[in-house]
């Protein structure tokens, strides 16, 4: 089966590529952070939230009537229920709070419904005892090779990246999740590849705002 790449959301793509080739009960710190960031960015691209300001002045505004499909609508509702929401929106550093606990699991369940993820359920029914795995590992590896080839061509050329790939790199850069996206978690991309990604994303306002969501605060992602 070939992945329906064009029909997948940014969150779907990020989840699949960062989960890797082995079933996983918990995401890495950076992958969980990135899934929450990808959810915000996907809802923004759908026109249901918007940002104002940059860096420490960045604030997220949520539009009331969400037209997104599930699970984006669930995440939009969670953003609207943010305890830090006021007439000026939500300061960026508080924007991730409503999504961190459940977005990774919810995205995995959604992908399982699409037949792209397998779920090994514990008889105890606890989140920590579920194992989620990519159903079509060859497709995962092929997509990852395609991304690396586009970002850092073997001939050393520089080219414009497709929007879907650029969005993945923006989120992964903001979440410090490039090793999850492109290689084995814990191993950094090669210097040439990292430099190419930084060159492609450093001017992105989306990257700066997403980076701000994780700045100046301690994130407890252990639960």
How do the strands and helices of this protein lay out in sequence?
Layout: H1 10-19, H2 29-45, E1 49-52, E2 59-62, H3 72-80, E3 90-91, H4 97-100, H5 103-113, E4 117-120, E5 131-134, H6 137-151, H7 163-174, H8 178-182, H9 191-201, H10 205-213
Antiparallel strand pairs: 1-2, 2-3, 4-5
Helix pairs in contact: 1-2, 2-3, 2-7, 7-9, 7-10
Describe, in short, the structure shown.
This is Golgi phosphoprotein 3 GPP34. This protein is mainly alpha-helical and about 220 residues long.
Please tell me about this protein's structure.
It is a single chain. Helix content is 46%, strand content 8%. A three-stranded antiparallel sheet has the order 1-2-3. Strands 4-5 form a two-stranded antiparallel ribbon. It has a single domain (7-217), classed as yeast vps74-n-term truncation variant fold (Orthogonal Bundle), CATH 1.10.3630.10. The N and C termini lie far apart (34 Å). The protein has 223 residues and is mainly α. It contains ten helices and five strands; from the N terminus they run ααββαβααββααααα. It has helices at residues 10-19, 29-45, 72-80, 97-100, 103-113, 137-151, 163-174, 178-182, 191-201, 205-213, and strands spanning 49-52, 59-62, 90-91, 117-120, 131-134.
């Amino acid at each position: 089966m070939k992945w329906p790449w064009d029909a997948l959301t940014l969150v779907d793509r990020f989840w699949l590529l960062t989960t890797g080739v082995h079933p996983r009960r918990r995401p890495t710190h950076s992958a969980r952070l990135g899934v929450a960031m990808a959810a915000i960015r996907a809802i923004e691209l759908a026109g249901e939230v918007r940002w104002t300001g940059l860096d420490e002045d960045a604030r997220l505004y949520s539009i009331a009537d969400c037209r997104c499909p599930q699970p984006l609508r669930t995440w939009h509702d969670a953003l609207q229920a943010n305890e830090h929401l006021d007439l000026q929106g939500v300061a960026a550093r508080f924007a991730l709070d409503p999504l961190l606990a459940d977005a990774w699991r919810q995205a995995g369940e959604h992908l399982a419904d699409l037949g792209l993820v397998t779920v090994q359920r514990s008889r105890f029914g606890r989140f920590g005892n579920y194992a989620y795995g990519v159903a079509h590992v060859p497709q995962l590896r092929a997509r990852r090779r395609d991304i690396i080839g586009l970002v850092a061509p073997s001939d050393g050329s520089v080219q414009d990246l497709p929007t879907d790939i650029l969005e993945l790199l923006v989120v992964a850069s903001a979440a410090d999740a490039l090793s999850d996206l492109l290689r084995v978690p814990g191993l950094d991309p090669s210097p040439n590849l990292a430099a190419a990604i930084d060159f492609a994303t450093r001017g992105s306002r989306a990257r700066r705002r997403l980076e701000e969501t994780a700045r100046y605060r301690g994130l407890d992602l252990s639960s």
